[in-house]
Design goal:
Blueprint lengths: L7 E5 L5 E2 L17 E5 L33 E4 L2 H6 L3 E6 L2 E2 L4 E2 L6 H11 L7 E5 L3 H13 L3 E6 L7 E2 L7 E6 L5 H11 L5 E3 L6 H7 L1 H10 L5 E5 L4 H16 L8 E7 L4 H7 L10 H9 L19 H8 L2 E5 L1 H15 L5 H16 L7 E6 L13 E2 L4 E2 L6 H9 L3
Parallel strand pairs: 5-16, 8-9, 8-12, 9-11, 11-18, 13-14, 13-16, 14-15
Antiparallel strand pairs: 1-2, 1-3, 4-5, 6-7, 10-17
Length: about 425
Amino acid sequence: MKFEKTKYHLVNAADGHEFEDLGWTLSDPAGKTPSLVRAVYDNRKFTPRDDLDGIYRYAEWMPISRVLRKSCAPVTYKSKGLAQFLGLENLYITFSGWNPRIGAKMRTGSFKETEAYSVLARMEADEMRILVVQSAGNTARAFAQVCSDNRIPIVICVPQDNLHDLWFRRKLNKCVKLVAVPHGCDYYDAIALGEKLATDPHFMLEGGAKNIARRDGMGTTVLSCVEKMGRIPDAYFQAVGSGTGAIAAWENACRLGEDGCFGENKMRVYVAQNEPFTLMYDSWKADSRALVDLAPEEGRRQAEAVLATVLSNRKPPYSLAGGLYDVLKASGGDFYLATNNDIIYWLLQFRNREGYDLLPAACVAVTALAKAVREGAVKKDEYIMLNCTGGGTLGALSRGFLLKEPDLVLSPDLPAEEVVRAVSALF
C-alpha cells in the first residue's frame, strides 16, 4: 500500500510563530530565543489507523513520509499486581520492550524504537546524506536494528564504556557503522564527536530532542495509554536522561486535550533521575531554568556511578522554550530521585508483581511512582500512567545475542576534518 506523507506545519514553542517544514527543520530560522519547534498536524483529531501495522497505527500524529518494516507499538494494560501493592485503583502501565505474552515485541527491548521508526520514516527514501545519531546505549541499539532491517546508512556515536548495550540477535547489515569515543568518555563526548562529523554536507545530524519525529515517536506511549484508558491520565511517570520522552508525552497530552474527546489536559508530569547523576533534579529543585553548574569531570564521575547509565545526559533540553522546565511548570509536575538500591528493589518487586523484568531506567520511574504515592502527590483513585521504557532483556547475552564491535574509536578532541576523513573511509 502506498503511504501518503502526513500533513503538518511547524510552530515555535517560544512565540507561536508558524512556518513550514523544509524537510529536516530542527529549529525556527526566524527564532530569536532557543526553542523547540512542534508539529501541528492537519488532522487535529486522534485517529488511530487500523490499516497500518505497529507504531504506524499512530501515523496521523507522526511527521513521516513512509512506513518501515518490523515496527511495534507500545502496549498498555491496567495493572493488577503493582497497583494492589501500591494501593492504586487506576494504574495503567505502558510498556515498550520485549514481552510477547502481553503483545510487546520491541526486539531491542527499549522504547527508543519508537524514536527510530519515526525519525527514519521522516527521511525521504531518496535521501543521499548519511544520518548521524549520538547515544548512550539504548538509542544506538534501536537505530542500529531499524537501519539494518531497512537498509538505511547510519553512523552511530557512542561511549566505548557503553558498548555492552550494543547487543543484537544477528549480525547487522554493513550499512550500520558504529564509532565509539574512548574509555573514560561519556555521552556528552559522543555528542561532540557527532557534531564534528556533521560539519560535512555528506552527513546529517539526527537532532535529538529538536527533531519533531523523535518526540512524536516517543509520544506514542501516551497515545497507547489513552486508547486503553479512554481519557487523558491525571498523572504521568517516567525516568529521564534528556527529558525528551516527558516533553513528548506532554505535547501529545496537549493535542489530545485540543481534540476534546478525552477530557481536559490536566496531566501532571512526574520525572526522575538516578542518583548521583542529578543535574536536572538539582536545577528543578533550585527553581532554576538554567542548568546548575556541573564540571565535566564530575559529570563523568557521576555517570559512572549510576545503574541507569542512559539517564546521564549532561546536555539535556531542559532550559530552552518548550523544554522540560516548561513542561514541569505547565503541568504542575515534579522531580524525584532513585538510588541504585531503589532500582534493584523495584526490579525485583516489579517482576514479582507484574511477571517480567524492567531495564534500570524504567525501575527509576517505578521508584518515583512509589514515592509519589507515599507522599500523597497522587491519590489512590486517580488515573495514572506509568511509562516503563524498556525491559524483557535480562540475560540477553546469555541467550546467544551478539555484541556489535565499533568500526572506529575516535577521540572527541580530534579536529572535525580528521573525524570526517576517518568516518567517510568506512563507506
